[in-house]
Structure formats: structure tokens, C-alpha cells
């Protein structure tokens, strides 16, 4: 299997995630796009691990999965708090910091 | 090798289509279910790369925990199930240009750097993907990062409870 196949697949997933973060208005959907980007990084790490016959990439993929879980937990808690205070998760409505 | 390539392309096409579904779907629940397809496809790719432990951790944590958390988030924020307004802002074209440009740059970089390098599948690759090898690497070489991550998870757990609690 060519290494580039996996790398380009992960680049595609990452760029789709970037598009989602830029375009989506719903905060939950933005968090989903961030998950796409983290997942793309994991595919890269595991592909390099197989390419170099070295376990380090897989260990780092496990660390990334752990941090992604913590990030989603905190992120959704923040979104819930915003929904409770502003009654909306539309990111265009949340502009209190805008001067 | 041919079988692996065929499997890779089937999975890759399914994942690419589902990823576009995640960022294009106007129904929030459909987007979450498209995300399940992408995550399961990634787990299958890990199995193709003989990283079985990471693949099952991916299934357990991403599909088992994170997607359920997303579905709870969708329910609790009462996101519109039916598209009344649009879910996207008015920056679609600019965003598409930016992400396509980024994809082009990254792809050119990879093609230039790794031209036709092959991943050699062999028996010791399967040994590397075993949980025993990964465990001895974590607990011998990466013990400090492991402890830091466990403290991070504890802090995230307490923080999520404190932030989301009604008081």
C-alpha cells in the first residue's frame, strides 16, 4: 500500500473539517468538524507508525483520542451553558465580545 | 497487496462522502450519523494498517462515547431537527476556496516528500500493533505524558460537571 494514499485521505478529511469550522453556525456542528480534523491527524500518525515499523505513532494516536474525549466533554458543557444563558447555539448570535 | 488496496479505496470513498455529509447536511442528527461512518471507516483503516488496539479504542471511545455525547448535546440544545433556517453562514465560497487551497498545498507537499514510498506489511508490523507492545511503550517510554493525560482527564471531568451544573 502506498503511504501517500493514507496521507492524502487524511489531508482531505482535515480540509473538510476546516471547511466545516468556517461555515457552520451551530456550535455542536463546529465541534463535530473539529472531531473530523483530530481524526485526520490520527490516521496520519497510525500510517507513519506502519511506515516506520515503530509503535510511537500509535501511542500518540491514543493520546490524541484521550484529549479529543476531554475536549468534547468540556466543549459540550460550554455549549450547554451558552444555550442556557443565550437560548441559542447560533454562533452568529454570540457576539458580546464584539466592540 | 491488491486486496488491501481495494479495501482502502472502498473505505476511503465512503469516508470522503460521509465527511462531506458531516459539513453539508442541514439536519444535525444526520450530521452526527455521518460522523459515525467517518469514525468507523477510520477504525477499519487502522485495522488495514495492523493497528488493532488503536482501532478498537477508536470504536469504543469515538463511536461509543463521543458520538453519544454529541447526540446528548443535540438533544439538550434543542437544535432544529427540520431545516427551518440554514445551518451555514454566508461565507461558503470563501471557506471552500480556503480549504481547497489548503488541500492542494498539503497534497503537493506529500506527493513531493513521499512520492511512491510503500508501507511494507509484514509479521513484525502485526506484533507492533499488539496491546502488549503499546502498553510497554506507554509505561516505559511515555510514563510522564501518560500521567499528565490522566490528570487532564480528571480536570476535564470535574470541569465539565462544574460548568454544566445548574445552580
* Overall geometry of chain B: globular
Task: Supply the CATH class of the largest domain in chain B.
Answer: Mainly Alpha
User: Which range best describes the helical content of chain B: under 10%, 10-25%, 25-40%, 40-55%, 55-70% or over 70%?
Assistant: over 70%
Number of helices of chain B: 7
Low-pLDDT runs of 5+ residues of chain A are: none
First-last Cα distance of chain B = 59 Å
Quaternary structure annotation? heterodimer
Strand/helix succession of chain B:
HHHHHHH
Question: Unreliable runs of chain B, pLDDT <50, ≥5 residues?
Answer: none
Indicate the CATH architecture of the largest domain in chain B. Answer: Up-down Bundle
Percent of residues in helices of chain A comes to over 70%
Question: Averaging pLDDT over every residue of chain A, what do you get?
Answer: 91
How far apart are the termini of chain A? 53 Å
Number of domains of chain A: 1
CATH superfamily of the largest domain in chain B: NADH-ubiquinone/plastoquinone oxidoreductase chain 6, subunit NuoJ
Radius of gyration of chain B: 20 Å
Class by alpha and beta content of chain B? mainly alpha
| Major sheet size, sense and barrel closure of chain B | none
Radius of gyration of chain A: 17 Å
CATH class of chain A: Mainly Alpha
Question: What does this entry show, briefly?
Answer:
With 99 residues, chain A is mostly helical.
Task: Tell me about this structure.
The complex is a heterodimer of chains A (about 100) and B (about 170). With about 100 residues, chain A is mostly helical. Chain A has a single domain (about 5-85), classed as Helix Hairpins (Orthogonal Bundle). Chain A has helices at about 5-25, 25-50, 55-85. In chain A, α1 packs antiparallel against α2 and α2 (about 25-50) runs antiparallel to α3. Chain A is elongated. In chain A, about 55% of the residues are buried. The model of chain A has no long low-confidence stretch (mean pLDDT about 90). By secondary structure, chain B is mainly α. Chain B has 2 domains: about 1-80 and about 90-130, NADH-ubiquinone/plastoquinone oxidoreductase chain 6, subunit NuoJ (Four Helix Bundle (Hemerythrin (Met), subunit A)), CATH 1.20.120.1200; about 130-165. Helices cover about 80% and strands about 0% of the residues of chain B. Chain B contains 7 helices and no strands. The mean pLDDT of chain B is about 90. At the A-B interface, α1, α2 and α3 of A face α1, α2, α3, α4 and α5 of B.
